[in-house]
Design a protein that fits this description.
The structure is a homodimer.
Chain A lengths: L6 H8 L3 H8 L10 H13 L6 H8 L4 E6 L5 H16 L3 E6 L4 H13 L4 E4 L6 H9 L4 E4 L9 E5 L1 H14 L5 E6 L4 H16 L7 E5 L5 H13 L6 E4 L2 H13 L9 E5 L3 H5 L5 E4 L2 H16 L7 E4 L2 E3 L6
Parallel strand pairs in A: 1-2, 1-3, 3-4, 4-5, 5-11, 6-7, 6-8, 8-9, 9-10
Antiparallel strand pairs in A: 10-12
Chain A binds a DNA duplex (16 and 16 nucleotides) through helix 2 and helix 4.
Chain lengths: ~325, ~325
Amino acid sequence: MSKRISLKDIAEKVGVSTALVSYVLSGREKEKRVGAEVVKKIREVARELNYQPNQIAQSLRTGYTKTIGLIVADIANPFFGNMARVIEDEASNYGYTVVFGSSDEDSDKSALLIDTLINRLVDGFIIVPAEGTVNQIKSLQDRRIPVVLVDRYFDEVRTNYVALDNFGASYHATSYLIERGYRKIGMVAYKSSLIHMKERIKGYMEAMKEFKLEGEIRVEEVRYDMTKNDIEKAILKLVDNGNNTEAILFATNALTISGLYCINKNNLKVPDNIAVVGFDGNEAFDLFYAPLTYIEQPISEMGKETVRVLIDQIQGSNKISQITLPHTLIKRQSCL
Amino acid sequence: MSKRISLKDIAEKVGVSTALVSYVLSGREKEKRVGAEVVKKIREVARELNYQPNQIAQSLRTGYTKTIGLIVADIANPFFGNMARVIEDEASNYGYTVVFGSSDEDSDKSALLIDTLINRLVDGFIIVPAEGTVNQIKSLQDRRIPVVLVDRYFDEVRTNYVALDNFGASYHATSYLIERGYRKIGMVAYKSSLIHMKERIKGYMEAMKEFKLEGEIRVEEVRYDMTKNDIEKAILKLVDNGNNTEAILFATNALTISGLYCINKNNLKVPDNIAVVGFDGNEAFDLFYAPLTYIEQPISEMGKETVRVLIDQIQGSNKISQITLPHTLIKRQSCL
DNA sequence: CTGAAAGCGCTTACAG
DNA sequence: CTGAAAGCGCTTACAG
C-alpha cells in the first residue's frame, strides 16, 4: 500500500535532480563537489522518508545483484546446513545475500537450479557439484560467471575449489586403525566418479597396501539413489558375509549414520564386534554410546575460504585458487 | 564475456519489434493474434540463441521477483534445515526461489535481514520470528508485504501462521509420562515470551495439575544466549539438587541434545536414572542407546502449508490463515 | 496482425 | 557545483 520511496521522491522534495540525490546517497558527494547545504538537506529528507534503495533497479543498471547462488546436495543434511550457515555469515560480511538450492546429487536438477539462478543474475556461484555436472561448470566458466566449487571438484577442468585433503584423511584414518591392531578393515563409500570420493577410497587402499593388507581390502560402494534400506543391506554385507570385518571406515556423514543404524539393528556392539570411523561429525556421533572416532572437516574455514575466493573472482580476479584444507582425526571410543 | 542474449537481439534477427518477441515468448501469441510464421521464427531464433529472460529486468518492470525470503533461527539447526528443504522444494513447484538468512534469535539481526530482503524486493516472507520482533512483523503487514510466520507467532497481532499444537503436544507427553508412573517430572525450556514456548510449558503445567502433581512442577528456563555449558549446568540442576527428578521433558530439539550431553557426562542412565522425552526428533534420537520417545512435528506438512499460504497471499488473497498442525508422540525406550 | 513508446528505479558520462 | 538524458532489459497500454 504505502508506496516505496524512490530517489525521485527525495529529489522532488528537496528540489534537485535524482542524479544529485544518487551521488549523495552513494557517498560520492565529495568527488562530485556537491554543495554542503544540498548534501545535508538530501540526507535529512532521505532519512525522514525512510528511503531504501531498490536493489532490483540498482542491479539492472549496474549488472551486479550482490547475491550469491549456493547449490548444495541437500540443505537438510547437517554437513551442508552447517556449511550454508558459515557461507551465509561470511557472505553477509561482504554485503552479499545467499540464495540456495539442493541438487540431490542429480545433474538435471543441478542444471535447472543453475539456469534459474543465472536468470536471477547472481553475481557468482558456490557449488557442491553433483556427478555429471562438469559441463555445467565449464559452461559457467565459458560465460565468465564466477564459480567456486566446494567439497568436490573435477580433474578434467581447471576451476576454483576448496576441498579437504581427502586422500590424506582416509589414509590417516585407515593407518590409525591398522596401528590399533585391526586388519580386516572395510570401507563404505558412494559409487561415484567424483574426486572427493575417489580420493577417500584411494587413501584407504594405499594405507592397506602400505601395510601389506591388500588381501583384506573390502570396499562397499553404494549408490546415491539407493534407499536407506538398500544402503543398510550393502553395509551388512561387510560384516555378515563370513569374512568377519573388524572395522569399517565410512566415507561421509550420511553413510556413517546409515552404518550406525545398521549396526544397531543387527545388535552389533561398537567397538567390540565392529570398530567404526566416521566422517564429518555431528551430534549423533557424540551421543552414540561409543562416541565415534571420526575425520573432522574444517567446515568453518572451508566456508569462509570459499566465499573469499568467490568474492575475489566477482571483483575481477582471474587467478584460479585451488585450496586443500587439512582434516583432523578425532580419536574416541569407537575403536579399541 | 559472451554477452547475454536479450529480447532485442532476437527481435533484430527476426526483424520484428521486441514487443512481439515478448508476447510470443510469454505465450500470449494467441491473445495477441501474432502471425503463425512470425511465432515460429521467433521461437526458433530464441532457442537457437539460447535466450534466457533477464529476471531482474522482468522484476523491475512487473514488481515481482518470484523470490521468497526465508528467515529462520539458524539454518545449521537440523530442524530448520529440514524445514528449509521442504520450503525450497515446495517453492520451486510454484516457480519461486528462496533466499535465506539466520536470525540467531536476535531481533537486531532479524531487522537487518528483513531490510536487506525488502530491498531485494522479495515477493513475500516466511519467518520463524525471534523474540521482540513483533513490530518488524507488524511493519511488514502495514506495508502490505505478504508474510507467513512458522513454528511461532504472536498473540498481539493477527498474522498468517503455521504452527504445532504446542500445548497439546507437551500436555500429551507429560500425561504419557504420568501414566507410565513418573511423578517427579521436570521440564527444560527456553526463557521466552514467544507463544510456542509458553504453550509448551503450559501444556506441561496443565497436565501436572490435572493429575494433582502441582507440587512436583519443576521448570528450568534457559536463555537462548547461554553457552552450551551454562545450559548443561541448568539442566543438571533438575537432576542433581536432591529433589530427584525422575523424568525430563525437553522443549526443543537443541535442548534435548544438550540434555543428552549433560546426562551422558554425568553418567546417568536413560531411562533407569532418568527418563527423557525429546522434541522434534533427529538421527541422534534414533541412535541413542535408548532411542528417544519424542514429540514429532509434521515438518513436511508444515513447510508445504506455509508456502501455500504465502503464495496465496502473494497472489492477492487477504484472508488470514492460522493453521495448527497435530503432533505425534513417538514412543520408544527412553521412558520405562 | 504489428510497432512505437513509455516506464519500472536506478547510475553515470556528459555538458554547462 | 548541478541537471538533462540515456540506458540496463523487460512488459504493456495504446494506436493503427
